[in-house]
Amino acid sequence: MAIMFREFRNLRRKSDRLGGFPDLLNYAALIDPGVMLLKDGSLLAGWRYSGPDLNSASPQEMTALVHQVNAGLARLGEGWMMNVDLIRKPSIGYPEASDFPDPVTALIDHERRLHYTQEGNHFESRFALMLTWTPPTEMQSRAASLLFQGRRATDWEETLDLFRRSLTEHEDALSARLLMQRMDDAALLSHLNSCISARHDPIRPPAEGNFLDVLLGNHEFHAGFQPMLYDLHIRRSA
Length: 238
Prior knowledge:
Blueprint: H1 2-13, H2 21-24, E1 27-32, E2 35-38, E3 43-50, H3 59-74, E4 80-90, H4 103-118, E5 123-133, H5 137-149, H6 154-174, E6 179-182, H7 185-197, H8 212-216, E7 221-222, E8 228-229, E9 232-233
C-alpha cells in the first residue's frame, strides 16, 4: 500500500505535463474491494441497478421512487457527486429454441420469437449508478500526512471507513425501490472502460491495482477540434 501511494504522489507531480490519453483520465488505483482512488484524492464506487417497468408503473409508484431517490441523495451531504449511466448495446438475438412442458407455453415462446425477429434491431439497456466523494480538506490533509510523511495509517483508514459506511447507507436507502448490485473491481473497471471507449470488453483488475489511467486509457485517441476515439466522433450536445 505504501508503494502505491508513493506512485500516486508521482502521478500528481506529473499532472502538468500531459503526454497522452491516460493523462486526461482521473483514475489512479484500487484501494478496497470495489473502491477506486482518483488522482485528485476522491473515492469512487458504483452499482448496477434496475428499476420498475416505466410502461407499467403507476404514477404513485413513480412518485414514491422519486421521493426515495431524493431522500438517499439528501443523506450524502457535501462533497458527493452522483453519475447515472445508461448504456445501450445491440442485442445478441433471441435464445435458441428450448423444450417446454406443454404446448401452451411452447406456443407463447414461438409467438414471442416471431414478434422479436419481425421488429428489426434490438438493444439491451444497462443502468449504472456511480458515487464519487471528495473528502473535506482536513481529511485530505490527514491522508496526505500518511501518504507523504509516513504517519500512522489510522487517519486514512478512518476516511475510507466513512466512505464505506456512506455507501452502505445509500444502498440501503435505494434498495427498497431499486434492485442494486454493488460493482466489484472487475465490474467497476469494465463499466468505466465501456464509458470511455464504447466497447464492452471485460477488464481484469491488475495484480497491484495501480496505474488505472494507463489500463483504461489504452485506446486510440485523436485530439483537436474534432476529437475521435478510434473511428468514433466525440461531440457534445446540450
